[in-house]
Design brief:
By secondary structure, the protein is α+β, with helices and mostly antiparallel strands. It folds into two domains: about 1-105, no CATH class; about 140-245, no CATH class. The chain has three helices and 17 strands. It has helices at about 70-80, 110-120, 140-155, and strands at about 1-5, 10-15, 15-25, 30-35, 40-45, 55-60, 85-90, 95-100, 160, 165-170, 185-190, 195, 200, 205-210, 215, 230-235, 240-245. The protein has a four-stranded antiparallel beta sheet with strand order 2-1-7-8, with no helix packed on it. A four-stranded antiparallel beta sheet has the order 3-4-5-6, with no helix packed on it. Strands 9-17-14-11 form a four-stranded antiparallel beta sheet. Helix 1 packs antiparallel against helix 2 and helix 2 packs across helix 3 (about 140-155).
Protein backbone atom coordinates (compact mmCIF):
# COMPACT_ATOMS: atom_id res chain seq x y z
CA UNK A 1 0.00 0.00 0.00
CA UNK A 2 1.44 3.36 -1.04
CA UNK A 3 0.22 6.91 -0.52
CA UNK A 4 0.88 9.92 -2.74
CA UNK A 5 0.20 13.61 -2.16
CA UNK A 6 -1.72 15.71 -4.75
CA UNK A 7 1.63 17.10 -5.93
CA UNK A 8 2.91 13.60 -6.65
CA UNK A 9 5.13 13.23 -3.56
CA UNK A 10 5.59 9.63 -2.43
CA UNK A 11 4.54 9.62 1.25
CA UNK A 12 5.50 6.07 2.09
CA UNK A 13 4.76 2.41 1.59
CA UNK A 14 3.42 -0.28 3.88
CA UNK A 15 4.14 -3.79 2.59
CA UNK A 16 1.27 -6.19 3.26
CA UNK A 17 1.12 -9.97 3.26
CA UNK A 18 -2.21 -11.53 2.33
CA UNK A 19 -3.56 -13.64 5.17
CA UNK A 20 -7.00 -14.47 3.79
CA UNK A 21 -8.64 -14.35 0.34
CA UNK A 22 -12.32 -15.19 -0.14
CA UNK A 23 -15.04 -14.86 -2.78
CA UNK A 24 -18.54 -13.56 -2.19
CA UNK A 25 -21.36 -15.99 -2.95
CA UNK A 26 -23.96 -13.34 -3.77
CA UNK A 27 -22.21 -10.27 -5.12
CA UNK A 28 -19.27 -12.10 -6.66
CA UNK A 29 -16.67 -9.80 -5.12
CA UNK A 30 -13.32 -10.63 -3.60
CA UNK A 31 -12.24 -9.97 -0.06
CA UNK A 32 -8.52 -9.79 0.74
CA UNK A 33 -7.10 -9.29 4.21
CA UNK A 34 -3.45 -8.37 4.59
CA UNK A 35 -1.10 -7.71 7.52
CA UNK A 36 1.92 -5.42 7.45
CA UNK A 37 5.49 -6.64 7.93
CA UNK A 38 5.73 -5.28 11.46
CA UNK A 39 2.34 -6.76 12.38
CA UNK A 40 0.92 -3.31 13.17
CA UNK A 41 -1.56 -2.73 10.33
CA UNK A 42 -4.32 -4.89 8.91
CA UNK A 43 -6.08 -3.90 5.68
CA UNK A 44 -9.47 -5.39 4.79
CA UNK A 45 -10.00 -4.94 1.05
CA UNK A 46 -13.28 -5.67 -0.76
CA UNK A 47 -13.42 -5.31 -4.56
CA UNK A 48 -15.48 -6.44 -7.53
CA UNK A 49 -18.82 -6.90 -5.79
CA UNK A 50 -22.02 -6.19 -7.69
CA UNK A 51 -23.70 -5.17 -4.45
CA UNK A 52 -21.25 -2.60 -3.02
CA UNK A 53 -18.49 -0.21 -3.99
CA UNK A 54 -14.87 -1.21 -3.77
CA UNK A 55 -13.45 -0.09 -0.45
CA UNK A 56 -10.67 -0.68 2.08
CA UNK A 57 -10.68 -0.54 5.87
CA UNK A 58 -7.55 -0.10 7.96
CA UNK A 59 -7.23 -1.49 11.47
CA UNK A 60 -4.42 -1.38 14.00
CA UNK A 61 -3.41 -4.69 15.53
CA UNK A 62 -2.05 -5.24 19.05
CA UNK A 63 1.36 -3.54 19.30
CA UNK A 64 2.35 -4.71 22.82
CA UNK A 65 5.77 -6.37 22.76
CA UNK A 66 6.77 -4.99 19.34
CA UNK A 67 9.87 -2.86 18.79
CA UNK A 68 9.03 0.88 18.77
CA UNK A 69 11.08 1.56 15.62
CA UNK A 70 9.11 -0.89 13.51
CA UNK A 71 5.80 0.36 14.90
CA UNK A 72 6.80 3.98 14.32
CA UNK A 73 7.63 3.41 10.64
CA UNK A 74 4.14 2.15 9.85
CA UNK A 75 2.01 4.41 12.03
CA UNK A 76 3.98 7.43 10.76
CA UNK A 77 2.72 6.68 7.27
CA UNK A 78 -0.86 6.22 8.48
CA UNK A 79 -0.98 9.39 10.56
CA UNK A 80 0.46 11.48 7.72
CA UNK A 81 -2.29 10.47 5.29
CA UNK A 82 -4.26 13.58 4.30
CA UNK A 83 -7.85 13.69 3.04
CA UNK A 84 -6.78 14.43 -0.54
CA UNK A 85 -3.87 11.97 -0.69
CA UNK A 86 -4.18 9.09 -3.12
CA UNK A 87 -3.65 5.53 -1.95
CA UNK A 88 -2.89 2.50 -4.08
CA UNK A 89 -3.14 -1.12 -3.04
CA UNK A 90 -1.45 -3.53 -5.42
CA UNK A 91 -0.02 -7.02 -5.69
CA UNK A 92 3.78 -6.90 -5.64
CA UNK A 93 4.96 -6.36 -9.21
CA UNK A 94 1.39 -6.30 -10.47
CA UNK A 95 -1.39 -3.80 -11.21
CA UNK A 96 -3.28 -1.74 -8.68
CA UNK A 97 -6.18 -3.59 -7.06
CA UNK A 98 -7.72 -0.49 -5.55
CA UNK A 99 -6.96 3.24 -5.88
CA UNK A 100 -8.75 6.02 -4.05
CA UNK A 101 -8.66 9.00 -1.71
CA UNK A 102 -10.05 9.94 1.71
CA UNK A 103 -8.43 6.98 3.43
CA UNK A 104 -8.85 7.53 7.18
CA UNK A 105 -6.23 6.29 9.64
CA UNK A 106 -7.51 4.53 12.79
CA UNK A 107 -8.22 6.91 15.70
CA UNK A 108 -5.51 5.40 17.92
CA UNK A 109 -2.75 5.81 15.31
CA UNK A 110 -1.61 9.26 16.50
CA UNK A 111 -1.47 8.13 20.14
CA UNK A 112 0.51 5.00 19.28
CA UNK A 113 2.90 7.10 17.20
CA UNK A 114 3.59 9.37 20.19
CA UNK A 115 4.43 6.40 22.44
CA UNK A 116 6.52 4.66 19.77
CA UNK A 117 8.45 7.84 18.91
CA UNK A 118 9.33 8.54 22.55
CA UNK A 119 10.44 4.95 23.20
CA UNK A 120 12.46 4.83 19.98
CA UNK A 121 14.15 8.10 20.96
CA UNK A 122 15.12 6.68 24.38
CA UNK A 123 16.49 3.37 23.06
CA UNK A 124 20.05 4.65 22.34
CA UNK A 125 20.30 5.81 25.96
CA UNK A 126 19.64 2.47 27.66
CA UNK A 127 20.94 -1.09 27.67
CA UNK A 128 17.37 -2.33 28.20
CA UNK A 129 15.44 -3.40 25.12
CA UNK A 130 12.45 -1.09 25.01
CA UNK A 131 9.26 -2.60 23.62
CA UNK A 132 5.76 -1.30 23.13
CA UNK A 133 3.42 -1.60 26.12
CA UNK A 134 -0.30 -2.27 26.08
CA UNK A 135 -1.30 1.25 25.07
CA UNK A 136 -4.72 0.82 26.63
CA UNK A 137 -3.09 0.65 30.07
CA UNK A 138 -1.02 3.84 29.81
CA UNK A 139 -2.09 6.59 32.21
CA UNK A 140 -1.85 10.31 31.52
CA UNK A 141 0.91 10.73 34.11
CA UNK A 142 2.91 7.84 32.64
CA UNK A 143 2.63 9.36 29.17
CA UNK A 144 3.76 12.74 30.51
CA UNK A 145 6.79 11.22 32.25
CA UNK A 146 7.75 9.26 29.12
CA UNK A 147 7.52 12.34 26.91
CA UNK A 148 9.48 14.45 29.39
CA UNK A 149 12.33 11.92 29.49
CA UNK A 150 12.34 11.64 25.69
CA UNK A 151 12.72 15.42 25.39
CA UNK A 152 15.52 15.57 27.99
CA UNK A 153 17.53 12.79 26.36
CA UNK A 154 17.00 14.44 22.97
CA UNK A 155 19.00 17.37 24.36
CA UNK A 156 16.28 19.65 25.74
CA UNK A 157 17.30 20.31 29.34
CA UNK A 158 14.33 20.82 31.67
CA UNK A 159 14.46 23.99 33.75
CA UNK A 160 12.20 24.95 36.63
CA UNK A 161 12.54 26.48 40.11
CA UNK A 162 12.94 24.96 43.56
CA UNK A 163 12.19 26.28 47.05
CA UNK A 164 13.23 23.42 49.34
CA UNK A 165 15.17 20.17 49.19
CA UNK A 166 14.84 17.67 52.02
CA UNK A 167 17.05 14.58 52.05
CA UNK A 168 18.50 12.01 54.44
CA UNK A 169 22.22 12.14 55.14
CA UNK A 170 24.03 8.87 54.44
CA UNK A 171 27.64 9.98 54.89
CA UNK A 172 28.18 13.52 56.25
CA UNK A 173 31.82 13.53 55.08
CA UNK A 174 30.63 13.32 51.48
CA UNK A 175 29.03 16.76 51.86
CA UNK A 176 32.07 18.53 53.28
CA UNK A 177 33.30 19.71 49.88
CA UNK A 178 29.85 20.72 48.61
CA UNK A 179 29.37 24.51 48.75
CA UNK A 180 26.16 25.10 50.68
CA UNK A 181 26.55 28.85 51.10
CA UNK A 182 24.47 30.05 48.16
CA UNK A 183 27.16 29.47 45.52
CA UNK A 184 27.68 26.65 43.06
CA UNK A 185 25.24 23.77 42.66
CA UNK A 186 24.27 20.50 44.27
CA UNK A 187 24.14 17.77 41.61
CA UNK A 188 22.15 14.57 42.09
CA UNK A 189 22.48 11.82 39.47
CA UNK A 190 20.28 8.81 38.83
CA UNK A 191 19.42 6.20 36.26
CA UNK A 192 15.74 7.05 35.91
CA UNK A 193 13.04 4.42 35.92
CA UNK A 194 9.78 4.95 34.08
CA UNK A 195 6.58 2.95 33.70
CA UNK A 196 4.28 2.69 30.69
CA UNK A 197 1.22 0.53 31.16
CA UNK A 198 2.33 -2.66 32.93
CA UNK A 199 5.95 -2.38 31.79
CA UNK A 200 8.83 -0.79 33.70
CA UNK A 201 12.12 0.31 32.12
CA UNK A 202 15.34 1.92 33.32
CA UNK A 203 17.51 4.38 31.40
CA UNK A 204 21.21 3.49 31.61
CA UNK A 205 22.57 6.93 30.77
CA UNK A 206 22.45 8.95 33.96
CA UNK A 207 20.24 11.96 34.52
CA UNK A 208 21.65 14.92 36.46
CA UNK A 209 19.47 17.22 38.57
CA UNK A 210 21.23 20.47 39.50
CA UNK A 211 19.94 22.54 42.42
CA UNK A 212 21.55 25.95 41.93
CA UNK A 213 22.89 28.03 44.85
CA UNK A 214 21.91 25.62 47.66
CA UNK A 215 22.02 27.16 51.12
CA UNK A 216 21.84 25.84 54.68
CA UNK A 217 19.05 27.62 56.57
CA UNK A 218 20.15 30.11 59.22
CA UNK A 219 21.00 28.50 62.53
CA UNK A 220 21.85 25.03 61.15
CA UNK A 221 25.39 23.67 61.82
CA UNK A 222 26.44 21.23 59.10
CA UNK A 223 29.29 19.91 61.26
CA UNK A 224 26.67 18.37 63.53
CA UNK A 225 25.06 16.27 60.81
CA UNK A 226 25.02 12.53 61.47
CA UNK A 227 24.07 9.56 59.29
CA UNK A 228 20.29 9.26 59.14
CA UNK A 229 19.64 12.94 59.84
CA UNK A 230 16.99 14.64 57.72
CA UNK A 231 18.37 17.86 56.26
CA UNK A 232 16.69 20.74 54.48
CA UNK A 233 18.36 23.07 51.95
CA UNK A 234 16.90 26.24 50.44
CA UNK A 235 18.01 28.19 47.36
CA UNK A 236 20.11 31.36 47.43
CA UNK A 237 19.71 34.08 44.82
CA UNK A 238 19.41 31.64 41.92
CA UNK A 239 16.57 29.19 42.52
CA UNK A 240 16.78 27.35 39.22
CA UNK A 241 16.62 23.57 39.01
CA UNK A 242 18.04 22.07 35.82
CA UNK A 243 17.58 18.45 34.69
CA UNK A 244 19.73 17.14 31.83
CA UNK A 245 21.31 13.94 30.59
CA UNK A 246 24.91 13.37 31.65
CA UNK A 247 27.09 13.82 28.56
CA UNK A 248 29.46 10.96 27.59
CA UNK A 249 27.61 8.51 29.78
CA UNK A 250 26.08 6.45 26.97
CA UNK A 251 25.43 2.74 27.54
CA UNK A 252 27.63 0.12 25.81
CA UNK A 253 26.80 -0.49 22.17
CA UNK A 254 24.41 -3.38 21.70
CA UNK A 255 26.04 -6.39 19.96
Amino acid sequence: MTTTSPSGEDKGQIVLTATDVSKGFVGGGTRVRGISRAGVVEVDLRVGSELSHDHAEIRLLETAGLLPDSVLHEVDILVDIAEDDTFQIAVAGGPDILTGTALRPPPLAAFIRTVAADLAGLQPHTSDELVMPDVGGITESQLGRLHQLAQIYAGQALQMTWDSLVFTVNDPSGLHEVPLDGTGALVVTEQPVFVVGPRQFQITQRLATQYLTPTIPTGVDRTQWNPGDEVELVPGEDNRLVIAAVVDDLPPTQP
